[in-house]
Structures are given as C-alpha cells and as structure tokens.
Amino acid sequence: MKKNGMDQxxxxxxxxxxxxxxxxxxxxxxxxxxSPFGRKICAECAGKLPYxxxxxxxxxxxxxxxxxxxxCDECTRxxxxxxxxxxxxxxxxxxxQAVLRLKRGDRRDYVCWMGECLTRLAGPLLPVWKPDLIxxxxxxxxxxxxxxxxxxxxLAREVSTSLQIPFEKDCLIKKRxxxxxxxxxxxxRTRNLAGAFEASGKAAGRNxxxxxxxxxxxxxxxxxxxxxxxxxxHKVYSxxxxxxx
Length: 245
Ligand SMILES: [Zn+2]
Ligand SMILES: [Zn+2]
What we know:
By secondary structure, the chain is an alpha/beta fold. It has helices at 2-22, 43-46, 73-77, 93-104, 111-122, 126-129, 141-147, 151-163, 186-193, 219-230, and strands spanning 84-90, 133-136, 172-174, 197-199, 207-215, 235-243.
C-alpha cells in the first residue's frame, strides 16, 4: 500500500515535470517563456512592478501625498461601504496587460503568481482583519458561462488556499448584468450597480475579504460590501490585484 502511494507520488512528480517541459510557464507580465523550474515571473519584470508602496490611504490603499493624511482625495469626498482595502499594483504597463490577457485571453496560468501577490499583501493584515471567509466579486451566471471562468473567483481561490481561509462561492452572487462600467461616471456606476449583488446568510456575523482583479472607483466593491452588510456581515475588506491610480 505504502509502495503504491510512493509510486503514485513519483508518477505525479514525473507528470508535472513532463508537463512543464511540454508547456513551459510564461512570465505573466511580459509573457516570455520562463525556465520550467525557475521563478514565476522573469527577473526583468520583477524589478519594475508598479507596486503601491508609499504611504497609503487607510481606506482604499491608494498612495496619499503626505504621511499626515489618512485618507486620499477620493475617499474624503466619497465614503466607502467596505471597511478597508488594499491593492498590490497600479493598473498600468505590463501588469495591466497581464490582467487583460487573464480576462480576455484565457490566461488562467497567471493566476498562481497573482494569487501569491495578493496573499503577500493580505498576510500581515490577518491579525487585524480577522477574516472568517473569502468571497469574490461575482459575475452573472450567464457571463461566467460565456467566459468559462470568473477571474476574481480564481484569484480568491488562490488566496483562500494560501491563507487557509474558506472560500465561499455562493456567499455573493450577481443577479443581473450591469454592462461595461468603463465609460460611466462615479454616480452612474453606483446607480447602475444598485441591487445587482445579493449575499447569502453565510456572511452573517462574519468578517469577509472580497477579492477582485481591478479597483477603479470602488463602486463595485461598495455594491458588493453593501449586499454583504445587508446579509449581516460584520466587516468587509477589499483585496484587489490592481488599482486605477
Ligand atoms: Zn517578464
Ligand atoms: Zn482612499
């Protein structure tokens, strides 16, 4: 029995090796082929990632102009429903292209590196956030069927596995299509999203981290947080890969 287990493991390892030789991993940022047994991102891209590193707004995680300021201009003017949020990168250059390829080009192979970035960002905050579960900004069933996957859900699942916090798929659902928000003003985004999300009782009394790929004005995260809070969630935290600066 033990021997079979070892044989199985050996076979799995060899299969993994054969697969990485057949389909070598790509750098998520520049999409060049990486060494199958090397790092998840090439050294050149790793050295110039658009990290959000300076003093951050305590609400949305955007850089603020001076350490004396707690909130950014946006958060001063437009209070958010979620309690606190963070993002890894500015939505620009190679990282922006990576997100677009993930969404439109079926590059699910990038999710492992992206999930790692999100995990590194959220890890130090766990003692403060005390999250009970992880959710993703949902898509309507129809849109997910058409795309085949929801990139926010893939990222959330990676974070859930690394942080060992349960991912609750049905905790948050999107009831209706809201169209492309890109050209809409902040007020129009909020109106467009009103009542689009619904949260289940699983969120009641819980602290929830909601994962998304891009944070723009925060309207989507606020609509998600609003549904979660209506369902009784205690705290809602936003964790996004990118933030539109
Ligand atoms: Zn690269
Ligand atoms: Zn802010």
